[in-house]
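Q: Got a minute? One more chain.
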Amino acid sequence: MRIVRALLLFAGLALQPLAVSAQTPLSRHDLETYLDGFFPYALQRGDIAGAVVSVVKDGEVLLLKGYGVGDVGTGLPVDPGTTMFRPGSISKMFTATAVMQLVEAGQLQLDRDVNDYLDFDIPATFEQPITLRQLLTHTAGFEDVFKNVLLDRAEDTPTLEAYVKQALPRRVFAPGSTVAYSNYGVTLAGYIVQRISGEPYERYMQSHILEPLGMTHSTFLQPVPESIAARPPQGYIAASQPASSFEFLGTPPSGALSSTGADMARFMLAQLGAAASGTPAILRPETIEQMHQPAFRSAPELQAMMFGFYGEDRNGQRIVGHAGDLMSFHADLHLLLDARIGLFVGMNSLGRDGSSTALRTALFKGFMDRYFPAQLPDEPTLATALEHGRLISGRYIPSRRAEHSFVALGNLLSQGKLTVNPDATVTLSTLKGLNGVPKRWREVAPFRWREVNGGAQLVATLDRGQVKYLATDDAPPVAVWQPVAALDNAAWNLPLLFATCAILPGALIAWPVAALVNRRKRALQVLAPAQKRQRIATRLILLAGGLSLFGWIAFLLRAGTDLALLADASDSFLRLLQLLGVVAVLGLALVIWNFLKMLRRSDVTAWSRIAQGALVLACAASVWFILRFDLLRVRLDY
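A: Always. Here it is, folded:
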């Protein structure tokens, strides 16, 4: 919290209503002064090793500057011309550019069935085929997948062909109907580039985009070859922690780029239709304009998806851009199309409490409010605010999610709760400000809410009087919020999960303690051999269910901070968890049968009946989670 507030103060963004000030002309001197006041303290407070900033304007590089260090061990400062960063998903802009080059050449068509370009078939789950237009706008309808996206070792990294064939996700939305961010979808587009061009993806990108633009310190190869950089990009979770190892992407078209601030400036110039001096244009002007045109909107009032970009319009400026995040590296790229300005910022650390996200957000907001200030619209709150707020209240889940693998268990934690406040504003618990507090929204048009003291919007799309989804421009338009199905509602699933996780280990501790107490009191009950076997079997079944559920939860929590765990190397451990789950599922009937038999006995105390009943319910609950969230899925493709 203190870190975020410090970042805001240095960006000139105290937590107060936006006031319009006189526009400051964007010049190198003023921008450098502004950034010099922002970065040094922000990096130190955020525990971030280094950052690079590139700004282009009117066809020229306005500013290239590094802050902090590129290597904590050597203390080597960030050099915008040679220090390499990993801009993550900003790579998707490059993949989209490659697709559009082949569209220009007549080798690809944006609205043709992608099966026509593949050497395997995407099953026809829906009548509509998937097209390149949908792959580039994240509307193909794939559920999210995570396996082998990030790996620790080069030898474990699958080939592009192997990945797209092995990791094919299920289709959960009709193509063109719902935006749901998909690394797989863009990776599939990259594979199509490879197949149609006849060149390996990395070689195509090097020879058709990076080299023509003069991006001599950039590559999609993993790891970075020494011929491009004597020092590979070095990232950190935090500057005060040991250096992270190189992150290998199993999905190169979606995030494998390594580049410098200077090279990213060249790419921005090309996308703004003003390639750097001496470099050829990689796309025709009309194709570049097509890439930046809205291609899909979740709501007419909100930001759109473009080809490889998404809308970021702010303060009256038409803006497209993209963010990029690996575990260690984090970046943003923004193009102010009409002003012909590009802004790129990259960081080589996640930072304390994920402060890199707050820093980038504060920097962009401060940049826009300083050089393109705007007045908030004067929109009165509607009289229907309370009525409509109550109509849309409930729990919601992002459209970007897994549905048919154990990762779906994590959906319980990603749900947002929309509530109506006493002043008729609404709050969605997952839409928070930089201060970590959920934002408040007031209705300014039917089913359209405006952020209180802010410019962002929240829109509800209804179907027959029921909410179909919520969409907002408070975040990139890469997903919508959909009502949660009753069976998946965290309002009752999470308490049940917590209770189960408390009862089962409590029983494991209580059993040996109780046995010891009874032995000391010489009150150990003499059981018949069959009863002993039943008791042992019951405890083993309960133990299997508890260990299975605990194992899945622990694995998901650990993978949240180390995505490399979501790889083939973890399969043997996950199979063990599945084996325990099978024991729990098959043994549930025996546990219930033994409990019913116990209830018929007259020598069992009321306390014992309650305790055993709680154990049976906990066992049944563990089986519910195992079955509902596909923890026994035969194929470990998640």
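A: Residues 1-19 have pLDDT under 50 and may be disordered.
Q: Perfect, thanks.
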